[in-house]
């Protein structure tokens, strides 16, 4: 292993990455946009008017596409794909593994002994039948029941990668249960569309016929030289370093953040952006992040379903492009101890088909009341379902990041800024029932009317808040970098949909039963909501211990670990919410909970095996090798010097020998205890109890082994140390 480490380091200076991987960027990236996408413009060129109208209706209104029209679309899609060099097609879907999946089928179809054609029809477009037996299902189906179906999602455009036409699809079991991330997301988006549209039409704008949830994600990641990556078995097998002493210089000077992008990395970014443009991913931002070798990119806002697909596609493309530039990309939330981990901030809002952002104030009190309605209802939804939101971002990887001084805490709270908080405090004083003319005037002029200038001049950002309002959107900062955005977006849109339904029902009751006008009824309901959700509003430092104490007083849960969060997820209220909105039935939801618990346990189990292997087969032998050299040195000193002089000259070596023995013993004992705890956990049936044992009994034993190993790293001769060090991983450009 030490040979591999030094071989990798020796080769790096002689590789001319800057020249060999230079990228020519076209004068206008916009000319490449959607080049490999069956976009609306491409559809206009390839589809008949009837087929184009039908697919647009499916995208914008959710209408079903007739079979004969599907045949027309399939033929046109095939002709376009063939013109781009495609030879195969696949239903591209997102199973519960956390990655994307695809099964390629050829357009090639023989029809006589010596003749063939390229064939693709409506039935091939609409449905495919991959083997579903090996995908996570949480006990929904038996392993021998292999059949599953993928079905075309027309709301997300098809695209080409290499020679394959990729058709975004949902994935369901033979018996109809959802087995993917996309299906529940589509249902949640439909639910929030219906609920928000009804509120808009009833109280603010009768011309609104559709409300779209929008998403802008921010993807953080690390780039590590491929050769160095391959020299670290823990990175290869777990995505993070299980051992490694912090370098003298990390991120203390903040010199990497927003600094000049290294040339080699810039070449990677240039090629990545070109590929993104071709696939219609509207990336616009790139920069160095806080930690060494950490970077970020972000796109423009898009419709949430498309944005989720684009993020999943992007992560795949990033890995491919990184490989070409001799990088390995790390999406793990905490690949290196002692420096910042990576997140994927989800910026969420709601937009109408009349062109308005419902979380942005307008030019008059009516528009501002509309803003307040959706703003306060979003806060109320988070207040009511904070534990469900926390569970949506729970994973073994994200547990390392949440609550550290780099990411929001596991306590779900909302930051809205002191100025806007003051507006809500004023609204709390609204009279119960009918409002006097003077009060209406006061509200319109001095409270609601001042919102635009408040947001323009005083909206700040709080990086310690998991759910922060940033001017015209909410930023869900707690999402992990390796996560599929679909799950947190499913939860967020579902809880807001439920809250908006409740809001409309309560406002209508006041109008009908108390004879209040619309704005009076809205103010009355918002007043109560503000009182009920003030406990989640927090403006201070979410990293501080004081906040943890204060949050407990407020009744907010601090679910620090994934098992804790997933235990809360099965609250009957949450299951009832999903069943009411038609997003999951109880069987599907419980199955997903089981899948997440099993994945958590499996991740910890793999890490335990890898750590044990490295500790016993790499760290201990290297330490003993160096110790033997010290022993030989001590023996030599004893032969040369008299006892009195020998005791002085050999004292430091003797102390090192003792320290090495202590740490080797600590590692040996620690590994034995770790493996014993791991086997005890494995003997349990998969589920909540097993996950808790992995969390509370197995995972804590990693620290003792790491502590001793990292101490040895500072003692053992650098030439003998087998593991590529942090200073090499993080600072090799």
Describe the structure in your own words:
This protein is an alpha+beta fold and 733 residues long. The chain has 3 domains: 33-180, Glutamine synthetase, N-terminal domain (Ubiquitin-like (UB roll), Roll), CATH 3.10.20.70; 188-584, Glutamine synthetase/guanido kinase, catalytic domain (Creatine Kinase, Chain A, domain 2); 599-731, Four Helix Bundle (Hemerythrin (Met), subunit A). The chain is built from 28 helices and 17 strands. The strands form 3 sheets. Strands 9, 10, 11, 12, 13, 14, 15, 16 and 17 form a 9-stranded mixed beta sheet that branches. Strands 1, 2, 5, 6, 7 and 8 form a 6-stranded mixed beta sheet that branches. Strands 3-4 form a two-stranded antiparallel sheet. Helix 15 (418-427) packs antiparallel against helix 17 and helix 23 runs parallel beside helix 27 (701-713).
List segments where confidence is low: pLDDT < 50 over at least 5 consecutive residues: none
Q: For the CA atoms, what is the radius of gyration? A: 29 Å
Number of strands: 17
* CATH class identity of the largest domain: Alpha Beta
**CATH fold annotation of the largest domain:** Creatine Kinase, Chain A, domain 2
Structural class: alpha+beta
First and last CA, distance: 22 Å
Supply the CATH architecture of the largest domain. Answer: 2-Layer Sandwich
Strand content: 5-15%
Question: Please, what is the CATH homologous superfamily of the largest domain?
Answer: Glutamine synthetase/guanido kinase, catalytic domain
Task: Give the rounded overall mean pLDDT.
Answer: 90
Shape, please?
A: globular
Instruction: Estimate nothing, just give the exact number of structural domains.
Output: 3
| Sheet of most strands | 9 strands, mixed
Give the helix proportion (percent range). 40-55%
Number of helices: 28
Organism: Chryseobacterium lacus
Pfam family, one: Gln-synt_C-ter
GO molecular function, one term: glutamine synthetase activity
InterPro entries: Gln-synt_C, Gln_synt_N, Gln_synth/guanido_kin_cat_dom, Gln_synth_cat_dom, Gln_synth_gly_rich_site, GS_Type-3, GSIII_N
């Amino acid at each position: 292993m030490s040979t591999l480490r030094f071989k990798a380091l020796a080769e790096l200076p002689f590789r001319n990455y800057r020249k060999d991987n230079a990228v020519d960027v076209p004068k206008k990236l916009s000319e490449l946009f959607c080049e490999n996408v069956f976009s609306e413009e491409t559809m206009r060129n390839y589809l008949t008017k009837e087929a184009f109208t039908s697919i647009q209706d499916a995208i914008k209104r959710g209408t079903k596409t007739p079979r004969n029209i599907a045949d027309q679309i399939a033929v046109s899609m095939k002709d376009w794909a063939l013109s781009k060099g495609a030879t195969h097609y696949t239903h591209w879907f997102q199973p519960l593994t956390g990655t994307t999946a695809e099964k390629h089928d050829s357009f090639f179809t023989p029809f006589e002994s010596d003749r063939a054609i390229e064939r693709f029809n409506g039935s091939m477009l609409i449905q495919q039948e991959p083997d579903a037996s090996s995908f996570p299902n949480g006990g929904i189906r038996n392993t021998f029941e292999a059949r599953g179906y993928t079905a075309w999602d027309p709301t997300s455009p098809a695209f080409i990668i290499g020679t394959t036409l990729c058709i975004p699809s949902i994935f369901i079991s033979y018996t109809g249960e959802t087995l993917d991330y996309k299906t529940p997301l589509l249902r949640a988006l439909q639910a929030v569309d219906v609920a928000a549209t009804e509120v808009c039409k009833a109280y603010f704008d009768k011309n609104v016929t559709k409300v779209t949830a929008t998403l802008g994600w921010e993807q953080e990641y690390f780039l590590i030289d491929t050769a160095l990556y391959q020299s670290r078995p823990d990175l290869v097998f777990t995505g993070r370093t299980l051992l490694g002493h912090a370098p003298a210089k990390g991120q203390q000077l903040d010199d990497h953040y927003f600094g000049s992008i290294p040339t080699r990395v810039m070449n990677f970014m240039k090629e990545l952006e070109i590929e993104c443009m071709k696939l219609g991913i509207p990336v616009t931002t790139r920069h160095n992040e806080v930690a060494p070798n950490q970077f970020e990119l972000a796109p423009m806002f898009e419709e949430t379903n498309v944005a989720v697909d684009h993020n999943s596609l992007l992560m795949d493309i990033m890995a491919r492009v990184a490989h070409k530039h001799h990088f390995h990309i790390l999406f793990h939330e905490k690949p290196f101890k002692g420096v910042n981990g990576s997140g994927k901030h989800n910026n969420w809002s709601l937009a109408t088909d009349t062109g308005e952002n419902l979380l942005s104030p307008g030019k008059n009190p009516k528009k501002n009341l509309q803003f307040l309605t959706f703003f306060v209802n979003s806060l109320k939804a988070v207040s009511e379902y904070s534990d469900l939101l926390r569970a949506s971002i729970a994973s073994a990887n994200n547990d390392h990041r949440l609550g550290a001084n780099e990411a929001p805490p596991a306590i779900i709270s909302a930051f809205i800024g002191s100025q806007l908080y003051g507006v809500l405090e004023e609204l709390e004083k609204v009279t119960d029932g009918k409002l006097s003319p003077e009060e209406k005037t006061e509200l319109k002029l001095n409270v609601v009317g001042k919102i635009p200038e408040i947001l323009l001049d005083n909206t700040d950002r709080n990086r310690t808040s998991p759910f922060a309002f940033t001017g015209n959107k909410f930023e869900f900062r707690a999402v992990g970098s390796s996560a599929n955005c679909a799950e947190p977006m499913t939860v967020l849109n579902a809880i807001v949909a439920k809250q908006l339904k409740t809001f409309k029902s309560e406002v209508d009751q006041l109008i009908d039963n108390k004879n209040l006008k619309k704005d009076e009824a809205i103010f009355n309901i918002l007043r109560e909501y503000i009182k009920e959700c003030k406990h989640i509003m927090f403006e201070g430092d979410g990293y501080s211990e004081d906040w943890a104490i204060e949050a407990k007083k407020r009744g907010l849960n601090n679910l620090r670990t994934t098992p804790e969060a997933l235990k809360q997820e099965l609250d009957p209220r949450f299951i009832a919410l999903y069943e009411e909105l038609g997003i999951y039935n109880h069987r599907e939801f419980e199955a997903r909970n089981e899948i997440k618990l099993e994945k958590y346990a499996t991740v910890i189990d793999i890490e335990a095996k890898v750590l044990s292997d490295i500790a016993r087969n790499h760290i201990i032998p290297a330490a003993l090798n160096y110790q033997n050299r010290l022993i030989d040195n001590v023996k030599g000193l004893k032969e040369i010097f008299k006892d009195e002089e020998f005791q002085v000259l050999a004292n430091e070596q003797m102390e090192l020998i003792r320290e090495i023995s202590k740490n080797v013993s600590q590692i040996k004992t620690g590994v034995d205890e770790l493996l014993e705890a791991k086997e005890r956990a494995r003997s349990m049936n998969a589920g909540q109890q097993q996950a808790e044992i992995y969390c509370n009994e197995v995972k804590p034993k990693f620290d003792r082994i790491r502590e001793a190993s990292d101490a040895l790293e500072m003692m053992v001769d650098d030439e003998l140390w087998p593991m590529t060090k942090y200073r090499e991983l993080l600072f090799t450009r």
